[in-house]
Write a structure and sequence with these properties.
This protein is an alpha/beta fold. About 40% of the residues lie in helices and about 20% in strands. It starts with 6 loop residues before the first strand and ends with a helix.
Length: about 375
């Protein structure tokens, strides 16, 4: 469903890896891209200005959490998410499906939608495809998601049922939408079962969505199974539309995803690790609580150009963590996000210059050396 608001421009391809630009009403998204997660209309511990300095171009916000608090009506009244959270770049909202289905005993699924109990106050709520679209239209993100059902990866019968329900709900989401300035992505499901993934990818691709997401991965399956399912799906999804792998953000997963044709990623990983004293580096994670860093004058990563690494030592960061200072989470989050954004920029440049294969081989070699 191409319109005047959205256009995906594929600039280069090296093997399956792709470099492009997704044009949106709030600016261009150079791909491949990593989106930091701003669950409650904020990327935890980081201001919009700091986020912009990391090079982030796309932010994800969470429909389930914002629907419960402060409520979609209030966000709409405040001018929508862009105005409310003061982020001028593109925003993506998920449908709330993953959060609702992860509630387990606190929800009941039927063909029409899901009834669930709020994790905040125990109040009962009802989410349907139509409601998920209405909430996301009030939130006002540039990219919105169809309401889907995320099933446990190894349960064949459940995945068959959830896939069919996801397809039925995708049709209802298409029918419910009213805003042409939002790109509605369909979601491919099917667990770790190639036949289901193939069937789902073919059906979702036939529905004329402006972009496609791959859901139900990075939820307990092995890396090899995740890679295999990405390959199955991307062999079917149309080349001229963006592909989004939901909830994936570890450096090796980003590289392996890009190598298999993924354009968009999101994950809470960089900020969650930062709040647990862990810094991402090209050589693995650093536990900054380690006593060995108490007198270490080096930055987290000597070659990193982020604000944190330009100004602060490992010794100072460890001091902040030991003293339980809030600034610790901010500084380590800035570094972790910047590190992933820089990795995406490096891969994009390699694709544009036709040398992604060499980059990939070197990355994998380094990974094997570390393990």
């Amino acid at each position: 469903m191409e319109n005047d608001f959205f256009h995906f421009e594929l600039l280069a391809q090296d093997g399956e890896a792709r470099a492009g630009i997704f044009h949106t009403p709030h600016g261009d998204i150079p791909t491949p891209v990593f989106a930091p997660v701003g669950t409650q209309a904020t990327v935890k511990a980081v201001t919009p200005a700091q986020l912009e300095e990391t090079g982030a171009t796309l932010v994800l916000a969470n429909t389930y959490h914002l629907y419960l608090r402060p409520g979609a009506d209030l966000v709409e009244e405040m001018g929508g998410l862009h105005q409310f959270m003061r982020w001028n770049g593109p925003i993506l909202t998920d449908s709330g499906g993953f959060q609702v289905f992860s509630l387990a005993e606190m929800r009941k699924i039927d063909e029409e939608g899901v009834t669930f109990k709020s994790h905040i106050d125990g109040s009962m709520h009802r989410l349907t495809p139509e409601k998920a679209i209405a909430v996301q239209e009030k939130l006002g993100a540039d990219i919105i998601m169809a309401f889907d059902e995320c099933a446990p990866p190894y349960d064949l019968a459940y995945n068959q049922q959830a896939m069919q329900r996801t397809h039925n709900w995708a049709v209802r989401c298409q029918q419910a939408r009213t805003r042409p300035d939002q790109a509605l992505f369909g979601i491919v499901q099917g667990g770790i079962f190639p036949d289901l993934r193939r069937q789902s990818a073919e059906w979702i691709a036939s529905q004329d969505f402006p972009g496609h997401a791959i859901g139900g991965l990075s939820v307990g399956e092995t890396k090899q199974e995740m890679h295999a399912m990405i390959e199955v799906v991307n062999a079917i999804l149309p080349r001229e539309k963006p592909r989004y792998l939901m909830g994936v953000g570890a450096p090796d997963d980003l590289v392996n995803g890009v190598a298999r044709g993924i354009d968009i990623f999101d994950c809470v990983l960089p900020t969650r690790l930062a709040r647990h004293q862990s810094a991402l580096t090209l050589n693995g994670r650093l536990n900054l609580m380690n006593a060995g860093f108490a007198r270490d004058p080096q930055p987290i990563e000597p070659t990193c150009t982020c604000y944190t690494c330009r100004h602060f030592s490992r010794a100072y960061l460890r001091h902040l963590i030991v003293a339980k200072e809030m600034l610790a989470a901010t500084l380590v989050s800035i570094h972790n996000i910047h590190m992933l954004e820089e990795l995406m920029r490096t891969m994009r440049q390699a694709i544009l210059e036709g040398r992604f294969h060499q980059f990939f081989e070197q990355f994998i070699t380094n990974q094997e050396r570390k393990s």
